[in-house]
Design goal:
Blueprint lengths: L1 H25 L2 E8 L2 E3 L2 E3 L4 E6 L2 E6 L3 E8 L2 E9 L6 E9 L6 E5 H5 L4 H4 E3 L29
Parallel strand pairs: 1-9
Antiparallel strand pairs: 1-6, 2-3, 4-5, 4-7, 7-8, 9-10
């Protein structure tokens, strides 16, 4: 009886570890940002297209002009997006579908579209999103003459 119980306990632990390992790989969620900003890399400048429409899961998540950023959420490491690119105003629109393996160690991933479209290495066009801390301004309450109940020195409320 004790061997059977031990066998079931070990089996349950192995199954839970297997599920955890699978979820760790396929269930990781990412926030993916798309930057349509000029990129300077190794002395080269990569200019932005006039307009880029980004589709994820057949839904348009961003319509980006110069110096704009869009965002999408994705679960898993193999990210797929479709880009409708217009190089210049009034120009022809081209549509391509791309797949990117997302870095596992980043939560917020920024993809620089001009660098990506130029075929640069992943290190050149992918960076981690770091939110800028904003300094909160605290307003101090004015000290009015009187006590804690709001009655001033003259006895008025």
């Amino acid at each position: 009886m004790k061997k059977r119980t031990l066998f079931f306990r070990i089996g349950a632990i192995v199954i839970l570890l297997a599920i955890a390992a699978v979820m760790m790989v396929i269930g990781r969620g990412h926030t993916v940002y798309f930057d349509n900003k000029k990129l300077e890399y190794n002395g080269e400048t990569y200019d932005t297209p006039y307009k880029v429409c980004v589709y994820v899961n057949d839904e348009r998540v961003a319509k980006l002009y110069d110096k704009e950023r869009g965002m999408a959420t994705w679960i898993g490491q193999n990210f797929e997006m479709t880009l409708e690119i217009t190089q210049e105003k009034g120009g022809d629109e081209t549509t391509e579908t791309y797949q990117i393996t997302l870095p596992y160690n980043m939560d917020g991933i920024v993809i620089n579209l001009p660098g990506f479209l130029a075929g640069l290495d992943q290190d050149a066009y992918i960076t981690e999103f770091v939110p800028v801390a904003t300094e909160e301004t605290t307003t101090e309450e004015e000290e009015l003459p009187g006590d804690e109940f709001g009655i001033d020195i003259d006895g008025d409320i």
